[in-house]
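Notebook entry, structure prediction.
Reason for the run: the old model in the group folder had no record of what sequence produced it. Starting over properly, with the input documented here first.
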Amino acid sequence: MEDRLMGRVIIFTVFVLILSVSCFGQRERDERRRAELEEFERSRIEYISGAMELSSKQGKVFWPLCREFWDKRMELDRAYRREVREFMKSERDSALHTEADYRRIVELFARKQLLEAELNMEYIRKFLDVLPAEKVFLFQEAERNFMRKLLNDRRRFEHKSDRR
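New structure, fully documented this time:
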């Protein structure tokens, strides 16, 4: 009887240790991901700020609005990616998709683009309420150029990695 109890205690202890190591690894990945996201945000704001040349008064009004815009845009993208990930997972799990399934995912993409366009218009209007049109134009250009720069940097890095 005591041996069975001792065996259960040992199994339970091993289970708890494995679970805690797993949770620690997840937390470490989450922290690394959060740090990368913060670094990305810092770089993006620094790059765009340099291009826009906002006064401190303009910056205090613009940046909270801009972060709100970015958060909403990111949430739209997350919702879309979640749906696509589920669709692709079911495909990997050998689910046979119907024409209606493919139509739904195709229309989902079009709806996402439409919602992004509406969100862009909403925030362009908000930006124009607090900044001159020239600054809003500079923001749009800087945001586009920052993303282009990011992609080019990544391509260069991957190209260097392929050569090794």
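Summary: The mean pLDDT is 87.
The old model has been moved to the deprecated folder.
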